[in-house]
Amino acid sequence: MNNDTLRAWWFARQGLDGSLTSAGASKVLERAGWSRSVGGASPYLGLFARAGITREQADKAVSKLDIHELPSARGCTYVVPKSDFALALKVGQTFQESGDIATAKRHLGVTEKELDKLSEKVVRALEKTSLDPKELKQLLGDSVRNLGDAGKKRGMTTTLPLVLGRLQSQGEIRRVPVDGRLDQQRYKYARWNPNPLAKCKLDDDEAFIELAKKYFRWIGPASVANFQWFSGLGVKAAKEAVSYLNLAPIAQNDDRMMFKDDLEQLKAFKPPKNEQYALVGSIDSILLHRRNIADLLEDKDTAQKMVGEKGLQQIGHLMDLTNHAILDRGRIVGLWEFDPFAGEIVWCSFIKPTPAMKKAVKQMQQFVSDQLGDARSFSLDGPEARKPKLAALRKLGGMA
Fold first, then answer.
1. Are 22 and 73 in contact (CB under 8 A)?
2. Taking residues 180-203, what's their average pLDDT?
3. pTM score > 0.70 for this model?
4. CA distances, 156 to each of 76, 138, 149, 150, 214 (Å)
């Protein structure tokens, strides 16, 4: 299968080709897949790039519970559409129980009875009002146990976060952003009525089969290994879930698969001749769901430089981007960051910039400057921490 065709297919399938223009936030996430959040701007950037959704419109969708940030695949937080609330919670529950809670029981003397008692008190406390963790701790008093130095070493200071995480995964409570924004990590907690899991009939195996169905519609063709990473399942369990889908390989000796009806559409698909630019976040679904940057690069671009954890590194050797991306019909053609000090996007291009590319950069710059104020990749990606990346991008783009 021609790489240009595959890249353009993923780009179109993700709705970055303009086919989602004016769609609502929930519709975008149903089509493109769940959006990783981690206190960064990626959900906003992805919604704007696909449908021109403003920050106000996105925040309104959150307040109306059309979309919500939930613990889901791998136990990680994603912004998901209302139609997937139950599924997202269901596939995240295993990781909730096998993570910090299991560690606390094994090493810190935390018991199931203790967690159950505290859970009941938290639910009662949130029946009539939403509270932040500090307010809950003050209200619950000695019911919240300090886990001492042993807990600190494992990143757990009290039993309250354990219970808040469990109750979220059970759909009993939900996190509410203090100022209504997705690109920060200050929350209150509220009772969730009705519980989105109340009518969910899926067992664990069925939930992961359903997740696999959605996944391969979002981002197929993809491999079992791609799905295994996204879902957090083991090799055997991932293969088992995918086996129920009756997928077809896109070519002989190619481990990437997709639904047969999608494969027929792919075979008939013609990449657009004219350039189509989109600026997306570093953890946008087109990049993160398959987590295979090389497939979105031209061979000649794999040696392009990007600031990684160890300084400048060749982009083709990395699994994830540390800068936001500029795409043209699915091909990564440049990198960008927002400089809040200058109020501008700093960028570099792997190709000669065209008027259409410059226009796309200008549109995203205006969106970030006017509506977001910044475009963090994650919560700790503050303006000061970003200065080395900005300096490197200016040099790479000939702006230093």
1. no
2. 95
3. yes
4. 17, 18, 9, 8, 34
According to the CATH classification, is domain 204-268 in 2.60.40? Answer: no
What pLDDT, on the 0 to 100 scale, is given for residue 313?
Answer: 86
- Provide mean pLDDT across the span 312-328: 91
Query: Predicted confidence band at 90 (pLDDT cuts at 50, 70, 90)?
Result: very high
Q: Hey, where are the domains in the chain?
A: 3-191, 204-268, 277-396
Average pLDDT, the chain: 95
361 vs 52: CA distance, rounded Å: 14
- The average pLDDT across 295-315 equals 87
Give per-residue pLDDT as tens, 284-294: 999 999 999 99
Residue 97 has pLDDT above 90, yes or no: no
Give the CA angle between residues 10, 315, 16 to the nearest 5°.
25
Answer yes or no: are the C-beta atoms of 285 and 296 closer than 8 Å: no
